[in-house]
Amino acid sequence: MSGNIAIRDAYGQALKELGALNKKVVALEADVGGSTKSILFGKEYPGRYFNVGISELNMVSMSAGLALTGFIPYVNTFAVFMSTRALDPVQSLIAYDHLNVRLCGTYCGLSDSYDGASHQAMTDMAAMRAIPGMTVISVADAVETKRAVFALADFEGPVYLRLSRAPAPVIYGDDFRFEIGKGVMLREGTDVTIIATGTVLHKALEAAELLEREGIQAAVVDMHTVQPIDRELVLACAKRTGAVLTVEEHSIYGGLGSAVAEVLSEEYPVPVSILGTTEFAESGDLDELMEKYGFGARNIAARAKEVMTRKGMKQ
Q1: Cβ(198)–Cβ(249) under 8 Å?
Q2: Catalytic residue among 56, 144, 248, 249
């Protein structure tokens, strides 16, 4: 697998393949199946596919009943609606009873770029992280997406799976092993650690290449599981490099950066910089928005150098 593949397409295909292997898997949809690509599952297994219309709260409530009867619901809508309109039953039904429901929020971050702030999910990880017992996963490429979809079928407890609309470079090979709760060290380094989640990971890797040209060795970590975070890996990186930059297509409040800072402030304080958004975004071309809000490789590299200065290193 190579080139750029849209995360939503990889998700839809993986869900369809999983449906053939596991008859307990069902899918629920809030009238955006063509967008989330859950329609691929629906066309193949219409008896296990439920389009409830534009009723996200009711959809999540229905998934609780299906989970209690032994099914494994994959619940689909835009990330912004999953983490706002549907949040009541997510917390009071799904999480409170620790049900095996997979809440699949697509069009996350800025990826629904032309629909603007009303459809861009920049606070969804914060909302889901705050719920006790909720596992939060944010995938970076098509391979990781498929591995996550399959892994969740055997996982116990509620999960929020964060999915982008946008095409993303394929980073992983077919031999990639996905493990919930364990980050992936993609690049070793001794000067600074860049911890990223989601499709912005490829920009973090580009930034590390830019830094290498200046003689700076940046470690790059794919922290696909934001909750519970891989504490051991975070601490090991901090101890080795002494400075950490987090990168997420999300608000700086309550997401990956907050999770990393919580670990380090408790156990091994080092300089930390959180790269994310601080405001509602706007409509426009995705690449232009990514640059405007600081997710370009050059800005990531600049932020990495800045956090290094706080540990006393000279550039």
Answers
A1: yes
A2: 56
